[in-house]
Design goal:
With 957 residues, the chain is α/β, with parallel strands linked by helices. Among the domains are: 96 residues, Arc Repressor Mutant, subunit A; 137 residues, P-loop containing nucleotide triphosphate hydrolases (Rossmann fold); 97 residues; 220 residues, Serine Threonine Protein Phosphatase 5, Tetratricopeptide repeat, CATH 1.25.40. 62% of the residues lie in helices and 6% in strands. It is built from 47 helices and 15 strands. The strands form 4 sheets. The chain has a 5-stranded parallel beta sheet, sandwiched between helices. β6 and β7 form a beta hairpin. α22 packs across α24, α25 packs across α27 and α42 packs parallel to α44.
Length: 957
């Protein structure tokens, strides 16, 4: 190698270079190459790309991108969108299924392709975007760089690593940092589950499953987790396993065995001791040796001293490291065994006592710090001693309040802290004690949030909980905690403009309160009320599986607690609704909905009846009972009309409009939908309801009718606006309810790019929130779009698999998916199987009275008959004539045109051009818009072929 080449190679290794796909990005030269050739980007676009690549796998907010790209300028988001669009085009984003940039609605943008450096091994291939849930990257890491590298390398090689060490040594911080470093390698597929808040070991599988949005099968969600993770390359972090060690170990071993591409990174104070586990024992931070001569300069070479100084000065304290106190600080760090949390807690008092006094205090309390050293477990010794020493500096009232505050999970407001902590003390005394705990670094105050929030460090909380339990007051405090959050939720629920933002902030506390209420020591009566009050929050967060868990426990306890009818109604309604939305189309779901409906009828709750009829209607549609669904909607309309509730009437007319579509009554459907949308205030009334209904569904349903009745442009305009509004609402279940109806309009108009973008998002959201039926529908839609792109093998396999899964779930509307399956089979040369498939679909559709797609099914049957080895043209012609007649009866020119095109081609093949022209032309002339859409473009070209002399009038359109 020449000297120049050596120099170039060295520069390559030193410079910041990023590689992804066929691209090489060199920030220092502001150059990007594709396969060695320079790619032309504007300066702004280059800056945006560099910012995204540097944080590959993370969501970068729009505000951050604008600040980096236009520093100091007042720039609107539209300018950012323009450059993002240019980047997508330049990179070929989406071509051949390759993705580089992902838009995260309401947040920003994420670079989702695998990124590597020249000196790194190739990263995993790109896969669909996955927004990780890692805690924020720790801003300050002292002396742990090598540990992060070692853990990362061991994880790559061994696949299952448990980071072990005593409490407070920084296991979680290290693991979070290492996981951020591995984001690009796992293409963003990194999932964090903190078990520190889990007090019931039996709930570990359910909590891990719930974090993925998975629903437990029977009483064991481990099977659902194993199935979900089996074919995924993902990094799963199980943090803080020691207090639920048996359950965490069993779950980790099962997932390790079931998912060959799953990497597991766990933290624990002891080994899990299961198959596949490799251990990384996290060492203490290096500290100065006992007789070292220290100065301020050389003391900072030891990470423990550096950490001490950073924490001692972090709160604006007056502490400063000097040559005089450097040895005392080094002595403190060594005596604290280099354990980061022990150092941090001690450093918090440095500005008050000084390093020399701190060292003396440590000596005086040596009996407290090391008491029981011979018999105590190693993971308890040093950190427990440090916390106990800090605890013993408190007054008795401060200790009592600290113990009471340990009931909170995560952070809390001052109002909540005062309400739970003030048992016998007056308000002024409690405020003074809380301020004192903050000053003594036992309680952290985050003034950046509004309102400010208080938080105990996890290790301090665990220690304080022991003291609370020893006092005998734990049960009473836990009950006060549960009652406080019950009151908070009920207060929110009583407001007409209910805003769940406050409840979302308190979710960890609400979950902890539910856990205590249904524990052996808990209060079931409070638990039933709390579960009922928590339902809107679980639906808001799309945590339907976890909602079902708590609601089921509350229903089991309902009779023994003599719960109120209001609570019973809420619980049965929620359980039925959750089961329907998670794809459990069984008698249990229907029974709970019917039981709730009976309760609403008993005490005349009209609004409750309307909501439940809505849910029963959805269940019947999913189950393929279309006549029953129409009857349910008619029953609801009668109730609404009798109540003179115009909003309820509009809502039931939406259901009637949807039912009529399934039954092929498109004129009636349009009338009902337009009547529903004329009602003012409809959107505001629906906002936040448990049913998750909204006028957007009426708009999308109307768009389908508009397309079928010959108005494709209006249909596209309505559906695009509605889907855009749904995405902006940032409600996953709402989006997943809306898209399947919008899909038809996108697809019929040939908007495949819109189809694919929305479907990919749909599948990810449905999987994340365990919307099982909808996930399968999404996979079917994906298969259909792939077939439309002539990716026949992949599309056919995906569509067939989705249909089989939907059929196993008794999903009635699967019959409509057999039509594109038949078309795909015919395209793959499997005409006989295609004919069997479409014949079966037509028979099932007639049996269920599913007439919505019948004209198109008959058209598909005809086209399959024409592709047989021995074409049956007579039967094909008969099917097309039937399709035309039915489409006319249904007032569906959209379907009529598709059938007419197929029949015209059939007649054209038999030299019946004039008949074909005269049959197709009147259908085409009925259209007044949409001449750029697929069907109309095809019809116009075919008419030109059939009668060239008369084609100019059509070409003008």
């Amino acid at each position: 190698m020449t000297a120049a080449a050596c120099h170039s190679a060295q520069d390559e290794s030193v410079r910041e270079i990023f590689l992804f796909g066929p691209f090489r990005l060199d920030p220092s030269q502001r150059r990007i190459e594709r396969d060695g050739s320079a790619l032309q980007l504007s300066g702004r676009a280059f800056d945006i790309l560099l910012a995204l690549v540097r944080q590959a796998g993370n969501v970068v907010s729009k505000a951050d991108l604008i600040a980096k790209t236009w520093p100091g300028a007042d720039v609107e988001e539209n300018s950012l969108r323009v450059h993002i669009a240019a980047l997508r085009k330049a990179l070929g984003d989406g071509n051949g299924g390759v993705r580089y940039l992902s838009t995260v609605s309401g947040q920003g943008y994420c670079f989702v392709a695998a990124v590597s450096r020249p000196d790194q091994r190739p990263s995993a291939p790109a896969s669909p975007a996955y927004v990780h849930n890692l805690p924020a990257h720790p801003r300050q890491m002292v002396g742990r760089e090598q540990a992060i590298r070692d853990i990362s390398e061991k994880l790559r090689a061994q696949r299952f690593v448990t980071v072990v060490g005593p409490g407070g040594i920084g296991k979680t911080t290290i693991v979070v940092s290492a996981s951020h470093a591995l984001l690009a390698e796992f293409n963003g597929h990194v999932h964090f589950v903190g078990l520190g808040e889990t007090e019931d070991a039996a709930l570990v599988p359910a909590i891990v499953a719930s974090s993925f949005g998975l629903h437990a099968r029977s009483n064991d969600p481990t099977y659902s987790l194993a199935t979900f993770l089996r074919d995924r390359r993902m990094l799963l972090i199980l943090d803080c396993c020691e207090h639920v060690i048996e359950a965490a170990a069993a779950l980790a071993e099962r997932l390790y065995q079931a998912a060959p591409d799953l990497h597991i990174l766990a933290t624990s104070r002891e080994l899990l001791r299961v198959e596949g586990e490799f251990t990384y024992r996290l060492p203490p931070l290096p500290s100065p040796p006992e007789r070292a001569v220290l100065t301020a300069a050389n003391a900072l070479a030891y990470p423990s001293v550096k950490l001490f100084v950073e924490r001692a000065t972090a709160g604006g304290g007056e502490f400063a490291l000097t040559d005089t106190n450097a040895s005392d600080v080094g002595n403190l760090c060594r005596r604290l065994d280099g354990i980061p949390l022990a150092i941090e807690l001690t450093a918090g008092h440095a500005s008050t006592y000084g390093a020399r006094a701190m060292a003396q205090l440590l000596d005086q309390h040596l009996n407290l710090l090391w008491e029981g050293r011979r018999t105590a477990l190693p993971r308890h010794r040093t950190l427990r001693a440090t916390i106990e020493w800090s605890y013993n500096l408190l007054s008795e009232p401060e200790r009592a309040v600290l113990g009471r505050l340990s009931v909170f999970v995560g952070s809390t407001t001052l109002d909540a802290a005062r309400s739970i902590a003030a048992v016998t003390e007056d308000d002024d005394t409690i405020l003074a004690i809380i301020d004192s705990l903050v000053a003594k670094s036992m309680l952290a105050l985050n003034t950046g949030s509004q309102p400010p929030r208080y938080r105990l460090a996890d290790s301090t909380r665990a220690y304080a909980q022991e003291k609370l339990a020893a006092s005998g007051d734990a049960g009473a405090i836990a009950r006060r905690h549960a009652c406080y959050f019950l009151g908070l939720l009920e207060k929110i629920g009583d407001k007409s403009d209910r805003d769940l933002t406050v409840a979302v902030e308190e979710f960890g506390n609400i979950r902890a309160a539910l856990t205590w209420c249904f524990s052996d020591q808990g209060d079931r009566r409070v638990g039933v009320a709390l579960a009922a009050a928590s339902i809107p929050l679980f639906f808001k967060l799309s945590l339907l599986a976890e909602c079902e868990l708590w609601v089921t426990r509350a229903i089991d306890a309902f009779d023994q607690t003599n719960g109120s009818i209001r609570h019973g109604l809420a619980l049965h309604t929620a359980l039925g609704a959750a089961r329907v939305l998670t794809g459990q189309l069984d008698e249990l779901a229907a029974n709970h909905l019917n039981r709730a409906l009976k309760l609403t009828e008993e005490f005349g709750d009209i609004a409750g009846q309307i909501r439940l009829i809505d849910q029963l209607h959805l269940l019947q549609l999913f189950a393929g009972k279309y006549d029953d669904a129409l009857g349910t909607a008619q029953r609801g309309e009668a109730i609404a009309l009798a109540s003179n509730d115009s909003i309820a009437v509009a809502r039931m007319r939406l259901l009637l409009g949807v039912s009529c579509q399934y039954l092929g009554k498109f004129g009636a459907s349009r009338s009902y939908l337009e009547a529903a949308l004329l009602q003012p205030g409809l959107e505001e009334q629906y906002h936040g309801r448990l049913t998750l209904e909204y006028p957007k569904r009426a708009q999308i349903s109307l768009a389908r009718v508009l397309w079928l009745q010959g108005y494709p442009d209006q249909a596209a305009q309505v559906v695009r606006r509605a889907i855009s509004d749904v995405i902006a609402a940032n409600h996953p279940i709402m989006f997943c309810r809306a898209l399947p109806w919008a899909f038809g309009v996108f697809f019929w108009n040939g908007d495949l790019e819109d189809c694919e973008d929305h479907v990919d998002r749909f599948i990810a959201e449905a999987r994340r929130y365990n919307l099982a039926i909808l996930q399968m529908v999404g996979e079917a839609m994906k298969g259909i779009t792939l077939l439309a792109r002539n990716e026949t093998g992949t599309g056919l396999a995906m569509l067939r698999g989705a249909i089989e899964q939907l059929q196993s779930k008794s999903f009635g509307a699967v019959v409509g998916l057999r039509m594109p399956l038949a078309e795909g089979l015919a395209a793959a040369g499997q005409s006989e199987q295609a004919l069997d498939t479409i014949d079966q679909a037509i028979a099932q559709a007639r049996h269920r009275n599913f007439m919505m797609d019948m004209p198109d099914m008959l058209r598909t049957r005809a086209e399959v008959l024409m592709q047989l080895g021995d074409p049956d043209l007579a039967q094909a012609e008969l099917s097309l004539v039937q399709a035309l007649d039915l489409a006319r009866d249904q007032e569906a020119p959209g379907y009529e045109l598709r059938a007419a095109i197929a029949l015209a081609r059939l007649w054209q093949g038999h030299r019946r051009d004039q008949e074909a022209h005269d049959m197709l032309a009147p259908v085409y002339r009925r259209f007044t818009e949409g001449f750029h859409t697929r069907s109309l473009v095809t019809a116009r070209g075919l008419l030109a072929e059939l009668s060239p002399a008369r084609s100019c009038s059509f070409a003008a359109k």
